[in-house]
Amino acid sequence: MTENSKDYIAGVYRLKRAAAPLPLVFDSPHSGREYPDDFNHACAREALQRSEDNYVDDLFGCAPEAGGTLLTALFPRSYIDVNRSVTDIDPAMLAEPWPGPHRASRRSAAGTGLIHRTVRPGTAVYNQKLSVKEVSYRIENYYKPYHRALAMALAEAHARSGQFWHINCHSMSAAQPDFCIGDRSGTSCSRDFVHILHDFLKGLGYQVAINQPYKGVEILRRYGSPAQGRNSVQLEISKALYWNEEEIKKSSGYNALKDDIQKLISFCAAWADGRVAVDLAAD
Fold first, then answer.
1. Average pLDDT, consecutive stretches of 10 residues, N- to C-terminus, the chain (283 residues)
2. How far apart are the first and last CA of the chain?
3. Domain count, the chain
4. Which domain holds residue 177?
5. Of the residues 14, 80, 87, 199, which has the maximum number of CB atoms within 10 A of its CB?
6. How many other C-beta atoms lie within 10 A of the C-beta of residue 241?
C-alpha cells in the first residue's frame, strides 16, 4: 500500500491505496468509532454504537491488497452524517437560525438528517439545542474533508482509465435480505455492474435485493454518473450475518462473512481489471 499526507486526518478519515491501483474504490462512511471530545450526547454511548455500521471498515479491509482504494470515516455517523446533503439541517435542533441555505428532508423529520436527532424511536441524542458554531465546525472539519478525500480518490481512479467502479459500503438491521444493492433506481451505476454483483453474491448463497429497501442517498447522488463512466453503488449488509446487536459485538458468523467479502472484492478487482484491458485493446 502507499500513503501520502492527504490520506489520513486523525479522527476524521483514513485512505488506503493499492501499490498498483485499479479504478476500483470502496468507502465506508458510517463505521467510524472514534467519538470526538466535543460530542456532548445525552444518550448512552451504547445507543450510538448500535447505529454504527459496525466493523464494515474491517470487513472490506483487504481492498488495497486486491488493487482497490479504501476510504473509511473514523468519526461516528451520529456526530455528522456524510451520506446526507450538507443542507439537510433540522432548524428545530438549533438554538439560533441557520445562516445559510438549508432544506430539511424526510430523514431530518425522522431524526436522521445531517446531524442525527435520534438514534432510535424514543431515544434522543441531545438534551439541548446545538449552536450554529457547533454544527458549522462539524461540517468544516469532518463532513467536507471526508467528501474531499472521496472526490479525490474517485477522480484519480477515473483519470486512470476514464471510468471507475465505486462501492459505498454499509450495514443494515437484521430484518432485511442478506445484501441490498442500491443504484438510485438505475441512475448511479451501469446495470451490468449491478447485476454481476447481484449474481456473484447470490452464487455464494445469499439473498440479494436491488434497491429494496435501500436505493442509496447523498454519496451516490454526488458521485454516480454511469454515462461518464462513474459507476457508484451502495452495498448494504445485514447485521444478522456477522453482528450481535444486543451485545454490540461480532457474532460467530463474522469470519465466514469476511471471507466472502474478500471473494467479492477479488471478483470486483478482476472485473475492473478486465474492463480496463478491454478498453485499452479497443483504443
1. 74 97 98 98 96 98 98 98 97 95 92 94 93 98 98 96 96 93 98 97 98 97 98 98 95 98 98 77 47
2. 30
3. 1
4. 5-75+133-282
5. 80
6. 19
